[in-house]
Amino acid sequence: MLSEVLLVSAPGKVILHGEHAVVHGKIALAVALNLRTFLRLQPHSNGKVCLNLPNIGVKRAWDVARLQLQDTSFLEPGNATGDAAAPTSEQVEKLKEVAGFPKDGADPECLAVLAFLYLYLSICRKQRTLPSLDITVWSELPTGAGLGSSAAYSVCLAAALLTACEAIPNPQNNGESTSRWTMEDLELINKWAFQGERMIHGNPSGVDNTISAWGGALRYQQGKISSIKRLPALKILLTNTKVPRSTKALVASVRSRLLKFPEIVAPLLTSINAISLECERTLEEMASAPAPEHYLVLEELIDINQHHLNALGVGHASLDQLCQVTMAHGLHSKLTGAGGGGCGITLLRPDLEQPEVEAMKQALTSCGFDCWETSIGAPGVSIHSAASLDAQVQRALDGL
């Protein structure tokens, strides 16, 4: 068991193109978003394991001795290899008992705690005794906005617990501010993070945890995930309209529109697939020799896809407003994720003056939206020295 403090971070994600079409077997392009979730793991010897999640107001502590007495055989020995089966409903019920939650507890706070307990007990039970730990997780990502916040949480937990329990080596060399694990270790981190995601979401696709573990960009189609090797540095404005929506209801509404008008809707899905392919080709060209016309292509693809998504019925007045405000500044936006509100992305060209960006952010904020200027294609899960984290992150992890 390692005795040093570990500081880990993992990125969120946005879907560039392919939302909704992906449900019908088409390609989706997902990119790592440089808004990150940070975790601090502090080993100690007070006989307690503490979990602190300031973003959602969770502070829980358990006696290690009490957890040690729990029969954790329900977690199955096979888990230690990372080849775990999906958590069963029986395992979930038992974890709720261990956590002291009611049987019907299914709110985000409860699920976040269950994912932690599942990963802690499964990964750490190979130790002679369960370790006493203090874990704080703080995120720049808003929760429930389709930006992969739960996956970034699961990836951070898996990476920190596997490293603390020496199932994988700490990749940090002396003096390095930020380090990353080997491909092989990332595979194991990702397998465990997928288990955490299953605790939270039941039946996730695996895209969110994979993009958070590996970073960069991925193409996803019919359960197959492959990485896009080269990606240019792209800046975006991410806007959260803060309009709540049900992904399930939106997916169902697209399905029913497809059944009602197959000859109208199927070509839209085929066209969205072609947009994803064209975008991927353009990004790969830009990575080797970026030119201003590439941005024009990306902007056009954004506009076409946004119109298609409106035609599928997953637009919203708040997203129309976002597109109008950014268009007034000569910029192009589309929804990302489920639609019906939620988040949108705006491509920021490199020739853009900062005052222009600030004016646009001001206009969007006055619509009641939240905005973040960030980049896509961010590095995946990483381990940091304390000195390399900025003051805001340090303060958040210190609970200030």
From TrEMBL:
<keyword id="KW-0756">Sterol biosynthesis</keyword>
<keyword id="KW-0753">Steroid metabolism</keyword>
<dbReference type="InterPro" id="IPR014721">
    <property type="entry name" value="Ribsml_uS5_D2-typ_fold_subgr"/>
</dbReference>
<dbReference type="InterPro" id="IPR013750">
    <property type="entry name" value="GHMP_kinase_C_dom"/>
</dbReference>
<protein>
    <recommendedName>
        <fullName>Mevalonate kinase</fullName>
        <ecNumber>2.7.1.36</ecNumber>
    </recommendedName>
</protein>
<keyword id="KW-0152">Cholesterol biosynthesis</keyword>
<feature type="domain" description="GHMP kinase C-terminal">
    <location>
        <begin position="298"/>
        <end position="358"/>
    </location>
</feature>
<keyword id="KW-0067">ATP-binding</keyword>
<dbReference type="GO" id="GO:0005524">
    <property type="term" value="F:ATP binding"/>
</dbReference>
<keyword id="KW-0443">Lipid metabolism</keyword>
<dbReference type="Pfam" id="PF08544">
    <property type="entry name" value="GHMP_kinases_C"/>
</dbReference>
<keyword id="KW-0460">Magnesium</keyword>
<keyword id="KW-0479">Metal-binding</keyword>
<keyword id="KW-0444">Lipid biosynthesis</keyword>
<keyword id="KW-0963">Cytoplasm</keyword>
<keyword id="KW-0418">Kinase</keyword>
<keyword id="KW-0547">Nucleotide-binding</keyword>
<dbReference type="GO" id="GO:0042802">
    <property type="term" value="F:identical protein binding"/>
</dbReference>
<dbReference type="GO" id="GO:0005777">
    <property type="term" value="C:peroxisome"/>
</dbReference>
<keyword id="KW-0153">Cholesterol metabolism</keyword>
<keyword id="KW-0752">Steroid biosynthesis</keyword>
<dbReference type="InterPro" id="IPR020568">
    <property type="entry name" value="Ribosomal_Su5_D2-typ_SF"/>
</dbReference>
<dbReference type="GO" id="GO:0004496">
    <property type="term" value="F:mevalonate kinase activity"/>
</dbReference>
<dbReference type="Pfam" id="PF00288">
    <property type="entry name" value="GHMP_kinases_N"/>
</dbReference>
<dbReference type="InterPro" id="IPR036554">
    <property type="entry name" value="GHMP_kinase_C_sf"/>
</dbReference>
<keyword id="KW-0808">Transferase</keyword>
<comment type="function">
    <text>Catalyzes the phosphorylation of mevalonate to mevalonate 5-phosphate, a key step in isoprenoid and cholesterol biosynthesis.</text>
</comment>
<dbReference type="InterPro" id="IPR006205">
    <property type="entry name" value="Mev_gal_kin"/>
</dbReference>
<feature type="domain" description="GHMP kinase N-terminal">
    <location>
        <begin position="126"/>
        <end position="216"/>
    </location>
</feature>
<keyword id="KW-1207">Sterol metabolism</keyword>
<dbReference type="GO" id="GO:0050728">
    <property type="term" value="P:negative regulation of inflammatory response"/>
</dbReference>
<dbReference type="GO" id="GO:0006695">
    <property type="term" value="P:cholesterol biosynthetic process"/>
</dbReference>
<dbReference type="GO" id="GO:0019287">
    <property type="term" value="P:isopentenyl diphosphate biosynthetic process, mevalonate pathway"/>
</dbReference>
<dbReference type="InterPro" id="IPR006204">
    <property type="entry name" value="GHMP_kinase_N_dom"/>
</dbReference>
<comment type="similarity">
    <text>Belongs to the GHMP kinase family. Mevalonate kinase subfamily.</text>
</comment>
<dbReference type="GO" id="GO:0005829">
    <property type="term" value="C:cytosol"/>
</dbReference>
<dbReference type="InterPro" id="IPR006203">
    <property type="entry name" value="GHMP_knse_ATP-bd_CS"/>
</dbReference>
<dbReference type="GO" id="GO:0046872">
    <property type="term" value="F:metal ion binding"/>
</dbReference>
<keyword id="KW-0576">Peroxisome</keyword>
<comment type="subunit">
    <text>Homodimer.</text>
</comment>
<comment type="pathway">
    <text>Isoprenoid biosynthesis; isopentenyl diphosphate biosynthesis via mevalonate pathway; isopentenyl diphosphate from (R)-mevalonate: step 1/3.</text>
</comment>
